[in-house]
User: Which sequence fits this backbone?
């Protein structure tokens, strides 16, 4: 998902996003000693020995008391869990240290700065890969234990946070996660309305634009017949999402009328409407469990119609059927 990845990198190139990520999702006591005013984005392009560039990460540094701490954000979003992510983190942190040594950005006594490596994951299933290198390495002779590499990253798995937990937070990253999870126009509009209010100062124009670009590339592209749109104004993007949602609703109604008519001719009105709703549920929620088909086929026409009316606003398949 190149557009998705690029949009995330654009968002996390703003210090406000890094601050809210740390304060909202790291939540460790040492953060109280950070001087967020000192947040500084640093070069993250390193050249490995085989001359391949790495420029797809985001690296920040921030003052902690009298020291610099490097916040290493690995922005590589994927739909599957990466089992060897800890090994990759070990490599990337090593490359960062090599670059700091090469550019003589070390302490006066020659020591390297501490690094906090963070992996942001937005897949649909829970992250299950080891967060440390050690479990990935076979246990050998006892005398080799001291040589086993040690490295760990901090995982932020978006799937572990429910929308009801995120909604009360005045936090930009929480708003981003809510948008990722949103499946109804009401929730998307609520989040965009909050962002418009939070980011209204003139100095936040760049971040407003970054959110608008992300919504255009990700949220609009998700709608049926989805097509990304490039709009730089967040308020204008909010209106565009509403327009696209209305177009989808009308498309859904028109498709429903046409397919119901065709299905009615072929297999009777009731069966045709059940088949139509099953197809639309598949488009909305993906692969359906086995129990859905029989339940639809045995439901009366009025029930099918009520489910169809609630389809656009239901966040999950279970929520749709539990509403009755």
Assistant:
């Amino acid at each position: 998902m190149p557009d998705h990845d690029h949009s995330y990198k654009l968002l996390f190139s703003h210090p406000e996003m890094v601050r809210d990520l740390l304060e909202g999702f790291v939540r460790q006591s040492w953060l109280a000693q950070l001087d967020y005013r000192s947040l500084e984005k640093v070069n993250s392009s390193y050249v490995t020995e085989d001359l391949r560039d790495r420029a797809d990460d985001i690296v920040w540094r921030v003052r902690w008391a009298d020291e610099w701490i490097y916040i290493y954000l690995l922005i590589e979003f994927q739909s599957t869990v990466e089992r060897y992510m800890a090994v990759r983190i070990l490599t990337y942190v090593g490359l960062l240290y090599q670059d700091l040594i090469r550019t003589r950005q070390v302490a006066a006594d020659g020591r390297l700065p501490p690094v906090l490596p963070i992996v942001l994951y937005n897949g649909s299933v829970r992250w299950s890969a080891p967060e440390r290198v050690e479990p990935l390495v076979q246990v050998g002779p006892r005398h080799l234990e001291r040589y086993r590499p040690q490295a760990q990253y901090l995982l932020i798995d978006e799937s572990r946070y429910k929308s009801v937990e995120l909604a009360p937070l005045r936090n930009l990253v929480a708003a981003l996660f809510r948008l990722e999870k949103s499946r109804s126009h009401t929730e998307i509009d609520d989040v965009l309305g909050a962002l418009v209010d939070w980011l209204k100062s003139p100095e936040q124009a760049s971040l407003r634009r970054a959110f608008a670009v992300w919504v255009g590339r990700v949220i609009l592209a998700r709608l049926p017949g989805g097509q990304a749109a490039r709009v730089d104004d967040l308020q204008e993007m909010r209106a565009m999402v509403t327009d696209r949602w209305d177009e989808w609703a009308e498309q859904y109604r028109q498709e429903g009328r046409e397919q119901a008519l065709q299905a009615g001719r072929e297999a009777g009105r009731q069966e045709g409407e059940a088949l139509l709703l099953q197809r639309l549920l598949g488009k909305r929620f993906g692969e359906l469990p086995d129990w859905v088909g029989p339940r639809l086929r045995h439901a009366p026409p009025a029930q099918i119609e009520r489910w169809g009316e609630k389809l656009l606003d239901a966040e999950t398949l279970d929520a749709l059927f539990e509403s009755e």
